[in-house]
Amino acid sequence: MTTSPDDHDRSPAAPPPGPRLPSPTSSDGTPSGAARPVGGPPIAPAVAVRDAPVAYSGPVAASERFIAPDLLRGIALLGIALANSVYYIGDRVLGPLARPVDGSTGDRVADVIVGTFVDNRAFPLFTLLFAYGFTVLIRRQAERGVPRNAARALLLRRSLWLIVFGALHIVLLFEGDILLSYGALGLVLAGLFAASDRTFRVIGWSTLVVFVVVAGVDGLAGGMGDTSWLPIGPDTVLGDLLWRVIALLGLAVTAPFTVAMLLPIAAVGTLLGRRRVLEDPAAHLPLLRRLALIGFPISIVGALPLVLATVGVGQPGPVVLYLLGMLHGTTGIAGALAFLGLVGWWSAGRSTRASSAPGVGAAVVGALAAVGRRSLTCYLLQSVLFVALLKPWSLGLGEGAGTLRIGLIAVAVWLVTVVVAVLLERAGRAGPAEWALRRLSYGR
């Protein structure tokens, strides 16, 4: 999973928010002396004036941020909590989508809701937002006049540090981490710094087959499998640590394959970011409406066959379950785009700035946006709370749990992160993980 580098950064050396003097531009609006790749954002020239170095673009004030991306991240983190929580269920036989095969009626209701609207929908949404934010970060460096090589170096550093964050997250907390994979994806996107829209379309379509093949795995039985070969049982602190170290090694080996799986979604997020779809939703209202009105039906119809099999309707064999997993995962991309379209559609009729959230529901919108602005911190905090509550060597609430209980715990954990994010927002402080990533990436 998150999370991603913050896509609303401006350094302390940058001018404060507010009206700015227009920079010299060419006839097509490109800053003078900058190169505009086909279909991409303007890129500053590789050579800067030696006696006038240009500072990186750094943090933007919360009141100046666009509301839709932050709001979507806050919503997506609830989905991430629900999707990840089932992997803490212990001492149960798990079937497709890692759901217990002998769940109660309440569990089955939870399985249908989460399996239809969350599983394989939350993580593609987060991946879309990662790529979108990466594109905004590239654009803002170009608008600042940062030389191309310096901007690419910044992106590479952020991605490498995100890999480090992910590796530590795996070893210390959760083997299902997504940060390491996002960091590796960021390295690829940094390499495609000035690639054309056409290049991203080709990459997206050509790697879609990888995503589809991997998605089928969710249709098969879940769980850790046979762990008797481990010298220490995973239900102990040391055994759990050993298991996560092994998981880290596995993720490192399969990272290229994982990046190829994420590239189709990242390509779409990049193209949306280049068009500023979430920054200027009113200008893209027809697109946003189509994404919502077409995406949700495709997502729901594609999810239901596997969801019904998960709750015991029919007895499909492994091959059919694998195919249903492919259908569930692939149509999840449509679901992610539908959520993006719905929030963009909603924000099109309102101010796109966080400082002007609507009066009705302003507290809810503000809280979700606060979480989205601290998505990395909240994502890591989720894992801390899950470990404390659910691991067999801690409070052990995950042992023998059904999906209804585990889902309610996931919602409670997410609400705790909301409270933390709101308190940080009121104090005017960034999330500690975001602060650390910026300091490590940008330096002083």
TrEMBL record:
InterPro entries, per database record: Bact_Transport_Assoc (IPR052529), DUF418 (IPR007349)
Name this polypeptide is given: Putative membrane protein YeiB
UniProt entry tagged with the keyword Nucleotide-binding: no
Keywords from the UniProt entry: Membrane, Transmembrane, Transmembrane helix
Basic and acidic residues composition-biased segments: 1-11
Compositional bias annotation for Pro residues: 13-22
Regions of compositional bias (Low complexity) in chain numbering: 23-38
Domain (DUF418) ranges: 272-443
TM annotation in the entry: 71-90, 122-142, 154-172, 178-195, 202-221, 241-271, 291-313, 319-346, 376-394, 406-424
One Pfam family in the UniProt entry: DUF418
Region (Disordered): 1-42
Domain of life assignment: Bacteria
